[in-house]
Specification:
mainly alpha; extended; single chain; two-stranded antiparallel ribbon; 211 residues
Length: 211
């Protein structure tokens, strides 16, 4: 038995589909206009040092020495361009992540290392696992990464720590001598302040006004 649609139903469904598609395209267009109008800010030296020295100066993704800052939620996708959305990373991980979220980065790394591109979704030609099984196996790693990101974000957001970097390190832009130079120059001072629990380095007049 052949099921026939009521007269006119196909036309209505097609119109609804086109309407939803136009609305989606309109939203995407408005989003692109908004994103293209945004400009990255130039971060001050104290911000660079505050972020790069978090997580013991290590990349949050691979654990190697941190070299630059990454937007956890990509700036190109609407992520905030301030210290609350920045974490320390190495150049290699920053390049690999690009405009992906941390979860997309981890999943991509895992699939590239264990999936040859052959086979089908239900069974690969490497180990015979399905995409579902591979996703579940990396799920715990992604959750651990989220925990690590939360820990590093809390460290960077610590008011005492931020205040120390704001008042004890340069407030200019690091492009004259480079971020690496400032890190080396202030390394001993930062280590000492960390051991002392980030002492209050604000000017005396500011301490009196906030007392």
């Amino acid at each position: 038995m052949v099921c026939e649609e009521p007269p006119g139903r196909s036309g209505r469904l097609l119109k609804q589909h086109h309407h939803r598609r136009r609305r989606s395209q309109c939203r995407q267009g408005l989003k692109l206009v908004f994103l293209k109008s945004r400009r990255r800010q130039h971060h001050r030296t104290w911000t660079w040092l505050c972020v790069l020295e978090a997580n013991d100066g290590c990349c949050v993704y691979c654990g190697g020495p941190s070299q630059t800052m990454d937007h956890v939620i990509p700036f190109s996708d609407g992520g905030a361009d301030d210290i609350s959305n920045l974490v320390p990373v190495c150049h290699s991980c920053n390049l690999s992540k690009g405009d992906k979220t941390p979860a997309e980065l981890m999943m991509g790394w895992d699939l590239r290392s264990r999936w040859s591109g052959n086979g089908i979704a239900q069974k690969s030609d490497l180990g015979g696992k399905s995409l579902r099984e591979m996703y579940l196996s990396v799920h715990e790693e992604v959750l651990k990464l989220f925990d690590d990101l939360d820990t590093v974000a809390a460290e960077i957001a610590d008011p005492k720590r931020q205040s120390w970097f704001l008042w004890a390190t340069p407030w200019n832009y690091p492009y004259d001598l480079g971020v690496s130079w400032y890190r080396a120059c202030y390394a001993e001072k930062i280590a000492m302040a960390k051991a002392e629990g980030w002492p209050d380095t604000r000017p005396e007049w500011l301490k009196r006004t906030s007392a």
